């Protein structure tokens, strides 16, 4: 037997309070759907949520702190650690100081330090955030 889809029925199932004076439809009790729409739109991890509220001062202005320490002058892009402000080079760079910093410190989230970019990346969950 086909059950016709009634517009608004899902909402009614949620909104109907126990005390609501409503005629009981045979077979309808306990048939409320289990799918919850609208809850899966932005599931960013706790690290990204926490990091979005932080704005640490960058450890350097001109470039990768790790590269500066070893005299390296080549890197692709820069990342800013949202925990401590460490500026490190990305994984496309020869030295990959941003990843190294995460491994050494456990600081989970970096933010792009490139002009005009503001995305974040969580190493723990390999998740992109904004
Ligand atoms: Zn995370
Ligand atoms: Zn570097
Ligand atoms: Zn850090």
UniProtKB/TrEMBL annotation:
A Pfam match: zf-UBP
Region annotation Disordered: where it falls in the sequence: 25-62
Top-level division of the source organism's lineage: Bacteria
Domain UBP-type: 43-130
Gene3D superfamilies: Zinc/RING finger domain, C3HC4 (zinc finger) (3.30.40.10)
Protein name: UBP-type domain-containing protein
